[in-house]
């Protein structure tokens, strides 16, 4: 954690920015509009990054957040903006960071355009002089979107959305318990006057029976269709129904659809015991999720860099999230597209509204429709292919959501889906059976692995597994798991020459709390583990969770105290580093960045100086395998000894609680979408006609009735899949989804330590240090130029 020297390939951020813009700049940061969880983390990042590069940073109060958030009527008038300009000039502020929604950002852009005229008018009135006009000739504006609705076009996620989803899913999980007990139907109304994102993703994350959105109204006759759907689900022995309604839900004629109206319909038509729950402002409350804390911190730092790189010709921009990458987009274009969505809805062009809302929204909607609505068997074109799904490695929250998604997409594609129980060991023993659409109902919110999972590799069972693949005529395999799943896929790939049964399409979806699978920035389960580390104990995982938030609360009494927390991850420091960034920790020790006793001593001295001020708590995270000798006990004893008289120490080993609990909304959604995409890839591969290199005893061909006009699913299973691109890992890299041949990933893998050789999150490590007030070096290569909203590459986009 000690400050590191800049090398040829890494430029000191302070040196880079001082050379770029000079010292002495002033930045004003304000929050405006509705409050959103994560705004405070964004403000903190702007302030500390600004101070780090030598700028003065000013709070603009009552722009909740710590500095206050408000909708200002005076600012909408020219007189109000004149007063605001005068206030800024008097303090030398010509760089404005605005955190708010589209209204706030639009107002800031108008303010920027009027700036020179406002200054001239102020000079004419004698409120400022000509020298001040020249010195503050232009205003730079950079926006960050803080909105729980995720209603701003140009970004995959806005600050606050993930936290709001946590509040919603917490309620849904609680409601499902009582609904099952009494066989009730619940109508849950969530926020979203003009945007249905919260409703849609909540429905996707809990497997709701029906969802009402303003962008995609139900078709004419929806009342009858919904009642049929609810009764069909009850007939499948489902004991509860969940209907989610966005507060701005409308029909195709733009008439409101209310939660009370839906309740009356269900009671009248079906006679079900039906209750309405309106969440309201609960969704805005509580502590921010780990995702929102990290997103806000990344965006805040990027906003400062953007401000200091800006010129008088640079248009106002918004710092956005694209996949896993921070990008800058023109504010005007984003606002225009956001307004175009509302215009499309007003004009009843609902398909256009969905498209304009963005790729994340569109993907979510399409996935929900595929998973929620089961067509009658006689309407599904049968492929006569058998596709198996297996969990491998340690359990990870979100695995069950991924299995549910795979099973339902596979059935919708006409496949017979097979579940393999207890990993490769169970596979070898023949623990394989068909799994149906209804069998996976209610799985999205379940933690652990319902199929059972083991770390055993397939190497010593290859003969038995090949026999089971013959016995069950398995035509494709989906593996959901961690590093053991990756190693298992490599072993199956290597065994293709000996066992023709393995010459079928195989794809792995990463699922591990360690987030250490090569080929993907994210793994299912890692977000839940991060929330376990950082969440407030009042959050979804209950009062027994000893998290960093709770630890900070316990340390905020009269005693100065430092907590040493050990996280899981093996040799991968993802949880420790990102948990530290999310929790605002003072240090994080990881294997990927070697440290010695001098670094430990430097950190102790840093904390000692900090504790001599008004600060009363310190937080240090340690990855479980970061050092063989500098153990958690050693670090605890060192801090205890060196901090005598200033602070005392406590330690906490979180252990396997990071693997348990209900999956976070992110992991439910991510697991659902990435697994659905994996199944689409399998179906596509099975339709291909690879070169015939050998016969096989079992074939899958579609059975289409005479006169059926649907496209047949034609597969010749006599053809074997032997090319590298038929056995892949599916993952996210920056802003795109990639299917990468597992054999190509070997060269990118550190097998001894079970981690990728290059890990994207290490670039964020300096941010954690800077925000903890350390000197650090920071790669600025990812600080991009302004892009356009409509720009899309040839790769497949990865909407988070």
From TrEMBL:
<dbReference type="InterPro" id="IPR035966">
    <property type="entry name" value="PKF_sf"/>
</dbReference>
<keyword id="KW-0547">Nucleotide-binding</keyword>
<feature type="binding site" description="in other chain">
    <location>
        <position position="247"/>
    </location>
    <ligand>
        <name>substrate</name>
    </ligand>
</feature>
<keyword id="KW-0808">Transferase</keyword>
<dbReference type="InterPro" id="IPR000023">
    <property type="entry name" value="Phosphofructokinase_dom"/>
</dbReference>
<comment type="pathway">
    <text>Carbohydrate degradation; glycolysis; D-glyceraldehyde 3-phosphate and glycerone phosphate from D-glucose: step 3/4.</text>
</comment>
<feature type="region of interest" description="C-terminal regulatory PFK domain 2">
    <location>
        <begin position="386"/>
        <end position="800"/>
    </location>
</feature>
<feature type="binding site">
    <location>
        <begin position="101"/>
        <end position="104"/>
    </location>
    <ligand>
        <name>ATP</name>
    </ligand>
</feature>
<dbReference type="GO" id="GO:0046872">
    <property type="term" value="F:metal ion binding"/>
</dbReference>
<dbReference type="InterPro" id="IPR041914">
    <property type="entry name" value="PFK_vert-type"/>
</dbReference>
<dbReference type="GO" id="GO:0005737">
    <property type="term" value="C:cytoplasm"/>
</dbReference>
<feature type="binding site" description="in other chain">
    <location>
        <position position="455"/>
    </location>
    <ligand>
        <name>beta-D-fructose 2,6-bisphosphate</name>
    </ligand>
</feature>
<feature type="binding site">
    <location>
        <position position="275"/>
    </location>
    <ligand>
        <name>substrate</name>
    </ligand>
</feature>
<keyword id="KW-0324">Glycolysis</keyword>
<keyword id="KW-0021">Allosteric enzyme</keyword>
<keyword id="KW-0067">ATP-binding</keyword>
<comment type="similarity">
    <text>Belongs to the phosphofructokinase type A (PFKA) family. ATP-dependent PFK group I subfamily. Eukaryotic two domain clade 'E' sub-subfamily.</text>
</comment>
<keyword id="KW-0007">Acetylation</keyword>
<keyword id="KW-0479">Metal-binding</keyword>
<feature type="binding site" description="in other chain">
    <location>
        <begin position="568"/>
        <end position="570"/>
    </location>
    <ligand>
        <name>beta-D-fructose 2,6-bisphosphate</name>
    </ligand>
</feature>
<keyword id="KW-0597">Phosphoprotein</keyword>
<feature type="binding site">
    <location>
        <position position="102"/>
    </location>
    <ligand>
        <name>Mg(2+)</name>
    </ligand>
</feature>
<protein>
    <recommendedName>
        <fullName>ATP-dependent 6-phosphofructokinase</fullName>
        <ecNumber>2.7.1.11</ecNumber>
    </recommendedName>
</protein>
<feature type="domain" description="Phosphofructokinase">
    <location>
        <begin position="27"/>
        <end position="306"/>
    </location>
</feature>
<keyword id="KW-0963">Cytoplasm</keyword>
<comment type="function">
    <text>Catalyzes the phosphorylation of D-fructose 6-phosphate to fructose 1,6-bisphosphate by ATP, the first committing step of glycolysis.</text>
</comment>
<feature type="active site" description="Proton acceptor">
    <location>
        <position position="149"/>
    </location>
</feature>
<keyword id="KW-0325">Glycoprotein</keyword>
<feature type="binding site">
    <location>
        <position position="34"/>
    </location>
    <ligand>
        <name>ATP</name>
    </ligand>
</feature>
<feature type="binding site" description="in other chain">
    <location>
        <position position="754"/>
    </location>
    <ligand>
        <name>beta-D-fructose 2,6-bisphosphate</name>
    </ligand>
</feature>
<comment type="similarity">
    <text>Belongs to the phosphofructokinase type A (PFKA) family. ATP-dependent PFK group I subfamily. Eukaryotic two domain clade "E" sub-subfamily.</text>
</comment>
<dbReference type="GO" id="GO:0005524">
    <property type="term" value="F:ATP binding"/>
</dbReference>
<feature type="binding site" description="in other chain">
    <location>
        <begin position="191"/>
        <end position="193"/>
    </location>
    <ligand>
        <name>substrate</name>
    </ligand>
</feature>
<dbReference type="Pfam" id="PF00365">
    <property type="entry name" value="PFK"/>
</dbReference>
<feature type="binding site" description="in other chain">
    <location>
        <begin position="147"/>
        <end position="149"/>
    </location>
    <ligand>
        <name>substrate</name>
    </ligand>
</feature>
<keyword id="KW-0460">Magnesium</keyword>
<feature type="binding site" description="in other chain">
    <location>
        <begin position="656"/>
        <end position="659"/>
    </location>
    <ligand>
        <name>beta-D-fructose 2,6-bisphosphate</name>
    </ligand>
</feature>
<feature type="region of interest" description="Disordered">
    <location>
        <begin position="530"/>
        <end position="551"/>
    </location>
</feature>
<dbReference type="GO" id="GO:0003872">
    <property type="term" value="F:6-phosphofructokinase activity"/>
</dbReference>
<dbReference type="InterPro" id="IPR015912">
    <property type="entry name" value="Phosphofructokinase_CS"/>
</dbReference>
<feature type="binding site" description="in other chain">
    <location>
        <position position="624"/>
    </location>
    <ligand>
        <name>beta-D-fructose 2,6-bisphosphate</name>
    </ligand>
</feature>
<feature type="binding site">
    <location>
        <position position="561"/>
    </location>
    <ligand>
        <name>beta-D-fructose 2,6-bisphosphate</name>
    </ligand>
</feature>
């Amino acid at each position: 954690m000690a400050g590191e020297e800049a090398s040829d390939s890494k430029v000191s951020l302070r040196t880079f920015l001082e050379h770029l813009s000079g010292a002495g700049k002033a930045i004003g940061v304000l929050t405006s509009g509705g409050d959103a969880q994560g705004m405070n983390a964004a403000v903190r990042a702007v302030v500390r990054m600004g101070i780090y590069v030598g700028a003065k940073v000013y709070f603009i109060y009552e722009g909740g957040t710590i500095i206050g958030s408000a909708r200002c009527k005076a600012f909408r008038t020219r007189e109000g903006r004149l007063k605001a300009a005068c206030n800024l000039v008097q303090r030398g502020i010509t760089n404005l960071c605005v955190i708010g929604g589209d209204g706030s950002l639009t107002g800031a852009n108008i303010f920027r355009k009027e700036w020179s005229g406002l200054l001239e008018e102020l000079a004419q009135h004698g409120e400022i002089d000509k020298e001040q006009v020249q010195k503050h000739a232009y205003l730079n504006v950079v926006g960050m979107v803080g909105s729980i609705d995720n209603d701003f076009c140009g970004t995959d996620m806005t600050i606050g959305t993930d936290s709001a989803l946590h509040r919603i899913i917490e309620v849904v999980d609680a409601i499902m318990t009582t609904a099952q007990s009494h066989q009730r139907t619940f109508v849950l109304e969530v926020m979203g006057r003009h945007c249905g994102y919260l409703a849609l993703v909540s429905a996707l994350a809990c497997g709701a029976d029906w969802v009402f959105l303003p962008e995609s109204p139900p078709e004419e006759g929806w009342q009858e269709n919904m009642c049929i759907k609810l009764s069909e689900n009850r007939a499948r022995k489902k004991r509860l129904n969940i209907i989610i309604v966005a507060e701005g839900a409308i029909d195709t004629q733009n008439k409101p659809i209310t939660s009370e109206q839906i309740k009356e319909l269900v009671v009248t038509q079906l006679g079900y015991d039906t209750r309405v729950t309106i969440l309201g402002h609960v969704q805005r409350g509580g502590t921010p999720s780990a995702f929102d804390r990290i997103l806000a911190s990344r965006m805040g730092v990027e906003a400062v860099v953007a401000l200091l790189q800006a010129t008088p010709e640079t248009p106002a921009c918004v710092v956005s999230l694209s996949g896993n990458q921070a990008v800058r987009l023109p504010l005007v274009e984003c606002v225009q597209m956001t307004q175009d969505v509302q215009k499309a809805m007003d004009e009843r062009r609902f398909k256009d509204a969905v498209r304009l809302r963005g790729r994340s929204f569109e993907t979510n909607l399409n996935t929900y429709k595929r998973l929620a609505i089961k067509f009658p068997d006689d309407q599904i074109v049968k492929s006569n292919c058998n596709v198996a799904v297996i969990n491998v490695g340690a359990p990870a929250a979100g695995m069950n959501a991924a299995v549910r998604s795979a099973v339902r997409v596979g059935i919708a594609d006409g496949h017979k889906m097979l579940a393999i129980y207890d990993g490769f060991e169970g596979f070898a023993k023949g623990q394989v059976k068909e799994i149906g659409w209804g069998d996976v109902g209610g799985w999205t919110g379940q933690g652990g692995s319902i199929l059972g999972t083991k770390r055993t590799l397939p190497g010593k069972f290859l003969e038995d597994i090949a026999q089971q693949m013959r016995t069950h005529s398995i035509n494709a395999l989906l593996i959901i798991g961690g590093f053991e799943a990756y190693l298992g896929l490599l072993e199956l790939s290597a065994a293709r020459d000996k066992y023709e049964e393995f010459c079928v399409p195989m794809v792995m979806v990463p699922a591990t709390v360690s987030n250490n699978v090569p080929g993907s920035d994210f793994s299912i389960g890692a977000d839940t583990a991060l929330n376990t580390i950082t969440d407030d104990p009042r959050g979804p995982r209950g009062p027994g969770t000893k998290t960093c938030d709770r630890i900070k609360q316990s340390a905020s009494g009269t005693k100065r105290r430092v907590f040493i927390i050990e996280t899981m991850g093996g040799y991968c420091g993802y949880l420790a580093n990102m948990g530290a960034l999310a929790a605002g920790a003072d240090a994080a020790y990881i294997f990927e960045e070697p440290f010695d006793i001098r670094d430990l001593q430097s950190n102790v001295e840093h904390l000692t100086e900090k504790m001599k001020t008004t600060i009363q708590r310190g937080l240090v995270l340690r990855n479980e395998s970061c050092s063989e000798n500098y153990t958690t006990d050693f670090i605890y004893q060192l801090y205890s000894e060196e901090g005598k008289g200033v602070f005392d120490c406590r330690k906490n080993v979180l252990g396997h609680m990071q693997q348990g609990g209900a999956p976070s909304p992110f992991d439910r959604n991510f697991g659902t979408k990435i697994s659905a995409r994996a199944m689409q890839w399998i179906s596509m591969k099975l339709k291909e006609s690879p070169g015939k290199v050998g016969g096989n005893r079992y074939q899958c061909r579609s059975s289409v009735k005479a006169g059926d006009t649907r496209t047949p699913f034609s597969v010749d299973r006599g053809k074997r899949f032997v090319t590298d691109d038929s056995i892949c890992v599916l993952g996210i890299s920056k802003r795109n989804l990639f299917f990468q041949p597992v054999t190509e990933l070997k060269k990118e893998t550190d097998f001894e330590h079970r981690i990728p050789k290059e890990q994207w999150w290490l670039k964020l490590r300096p941010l954690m240090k800077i925000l903890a007030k350390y000197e650090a070096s920071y790669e600025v290569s990812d600080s991009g130029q302004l892009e356009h909203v409509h720009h899309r590459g040839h790769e497949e986009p990865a909407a988070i």
